[in-house]
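Re: the 92-residue chain
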Amino acid sequence: MSQRKLAELAKLMNSTINRIENDLDNPNFETLKKLAIALEVNKELLLIKCGYSDMPEEFIYIYDRSSSFAEKKMKKMFKMFNDIIDKLILEK
C-alpha cells in the first residue's frame, strides 16, 4: 500500500506517514488508532508493538480467538484465566 493510500484511509497527512516510516517521528496514541483502523489490524496489538502498552501480546491473541465462543463458554474461559492470574499474583 502506498503512503498516499494509507494516509487517505487513516485520514492523516501523507507527510505524517512518511515521517513515521522513516523513523523521524513516533506516532501518538490517536495516530496509531487511525492507522489500526485503516490497516484493519487489532489496535491493542498495534499499541503493544509500538510500546504504548505493556500488556502481554498473548492476552490479545486469547481475546481475539475467544470472541467467537458462545457466551457461556467465554465466561468459563475468562474465569479460568482470572483464576490463573490471581494464583500468579499471590505466588509473588
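The mean pLDDT is 84.
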